[in-house]
């Protein structure tokens, strides 16, 4: 089984889709948020009749555990280029995510371009340590379902040597040469460790409250260059901004996430 099979959905009624939350995509027992987003997006894409999510916002209501899922989709507006839908992803009738998204054909959207950022400077993937799952639960199990490599300057937190900057840079790809589709971009936007792990602050894991993803293009085959940074940690909350660039240097996706910052023990 791979990412595409593990995020598959099927229609079970008008506007309702079924899926299975598979084991191994978890962070300390709870399903990774990007994995949940990818499942929901596949159902919303099918309901919209459009091939790609362009913008998708999700509020996280409950943690997800392996087992059957339902995704109930409602079309709010059907336009010439965009369809806007809402959806609820639930497990045993318990809502896990509430989503709102815009869907279209990314390949058909065009206009003037101006890019004022550049892809992160990274050593080659073979010179960046791969993050692998550990028996004690950190790094989490899902790291053995993807190939994620961290910039050496950002990887010391695993040995108790955080860089002091709330920043992670690195490479991402799926295993077994699975192609990167739009839903894989959603997974990548939530796959890296929380930036606060490099900030020298007394915190534990940071549960997501809300995540918004903007997809700009379908990536070329190969590695994604990724950068995640935080500017504001205050009031028990933090924001995290993500950028993804494909193997040809094209900007393909961005995200903003708001997460709780519980104090570490």
Automatic annotation (TrEMBL):
InterPro entries: ACOT8-like_C, Acyl-CoA_hotdog, HotDog_dom_sf, Sec_Metab_Biosynth-Assoc, TesB_ACOT8-like_N
Pfam families the record matches: 4HBT_3, 4HBT_3C
Domain of life: Bacteria
Ranges for domain Acyl-CoA thioesterase-like N-terminal HotDog: 22-99
Record SUPFAM superfamilies: Thioesterase/thiol ester dehydrase-isomerase
Domain Acyl-CoA thioesterase-like C-terminal: 125-261
Record protein name field: TesB-like acyl-CoA thioesterase 3
Organism from which the protein derives: Pseudohaliea rubra DSM 19751
